[in-house]
Automatic annotation (TrEMBL):
InterPro entries: Rhodanese-like_dom (IPR001763), Rhodanese-like_dom_sf (IPR036873), TrhO (IPR020936), TRHO_N (IPR040503). Gene3D superfamilies: 3.30.70.100, Rhodanese-like domain. This is tRNA uridine(34) hydroxylase. The keyword Iron-sulfur does not apply. GO terms for molecular function: oxidoreductase activity, acting on paired donors, with incorporation or reduction of molecular oxygen. Residues 135-229 form the Rhodanese domain. Pfam families: Rhodanese, UPF0176_N. It is an enzyme of class 1 (oxidoreductase). GO terms for biological process: tRNA modification. The gene is trhO. The keyword Nucleotide-binding does not apply.
Length: 314
């Protein structure tokens, strides 16, 4: 059954519907789909990124509601994606600059051969049941996201692997023998896709009771009331909104356009912060030549804004 997660808020002028989606399926004809899918998105005013590979589809798109509905309907008309699920939220402005349909080796890159979520995967846990699982003292809770994501939000008591990329996750698991000290492993990520592969990998590593949050953090923040939530902070998202909070409301973080790290209001008061040039997380690792180049780019962005345009590098 196709399941649509809808944030209950009516569309108003100046708001854009955002759809996050993924679906694992045997998809050998993925190359032939790129061009018609790109054309449809362009015609419908839809922007974002969709990744196509032998193993399925993954991405996030935004646009007018009618355009998003048209793209989703087209995708579900493909036999491989008839059961495609997606999650919805709203953005106050278009969160993407362009539409990109890309061909990839994997729709989420883990770098481990023969990991197939269609063959083996962990047990899905609904958001309403998640709190009980992660509060169980017999459970180890693992955040499968990267360090810049976990920096602004994490589930209470979760283990943070501090990985820079998802490719580092398998080695982190292999090197942490203590993960076998408790019988249950509970894993989560932004929308669920990384956990599809992460839980499959854990099962192949000999872990028996492996669970993951169905729909990811986004689904949890949509459905679980703030007063019952065990989520602490905001959830990083891969678009110009930067973060979302409970109810999938837009967060208050902004992005450092020098290093792409999410920034708090406190970060922007640091003497190491300069809009578009540096922040406390990257200032000391950048050279004066780097900062000069970033300032020149920032100047071009400011000029474009005065002309009522949006600079492609912004």
């Amino acid at each position: 059954m196709t399941q649509t997660t809808v944030f209950p808020q009516a569309e108003v002028s100046g708001r854009f519907l955002v759809a996050a989606l993924y679906h694992f399926a045997s998809f050998p004809r993925f190359q032939s789909v790129r061009e018609p899918l790109q054309t449809l998105c362009d015609e419908q005013g839809v922007k974002g990124t969709l990744l196509l590979a032998h193993e399925g589809i993954n991405g996030t798109i935004a646009g007018p509601e009618a355009g998003i509905r048209a793209v989703l309907a087209w995708l579900r008309a493909q036999p491989e994606f008839a059961g495609l699920e997606h999650k919805e939220s709203w953005a106050s402005k278009m969160p993407f600059l362009r539409m990109k349909v890309r061909l990839k080796k994997e729709i989420v890159t883990m770098g481990v051969e023969n990991i197939d979520p269609n063959h083996i995967v962990g047990t899905y846990v609904a958001p309403q049941d998640w709190n009980a699982l992660i509060s169980d003292p017999e459970t180890i809770v693992i955040d499968t996201r990267n360090d810049y994501e976990t920096a602004i939000g994490i589930f209470k008591g979760a283990v943070d692997p501090n990985t820079k990329t998802f490719r580092e996750f398998p080695d982190w698991v292999r090197n942490n023998t203590g993960l076998h000290n408790k019988p249950k492993i509970a894993m989560y990520c932004t929308g669920g896709i990384r956990c599809e592969k992460a839980t499959a990998f854990m099962k192949e590593q000999g872990f028996d009771e492996v669970y993951h949050l169905k729909g990811g953090i986004l689904k949890y923040l949509e459905e679980v009331p703030p007063e019952e939530s065990l989520w602490e902070g905001a959830c990083f998202v891969f678009d110009e909104r930067v973060s979302v909070t409970h109810g999938l409301e837009e967060g208050e973080h902004r992005l450092c356009h020098a290093c792409r790290y999410p920034l708090t209001a406190e970060d922007t008061t640091s003497p190491k912060y300069e809009a578009g040039v540096s922040c406390p997380h990257c200032h000391d690792s950048r050279t004066d030549e780097d900062r000069l180049r970033y300032r020149q780019r920032q100047h071009q962005i400011a000029l474009a804004k005065k002309r009522g345009q949006r600079h492609i590098g912004s």
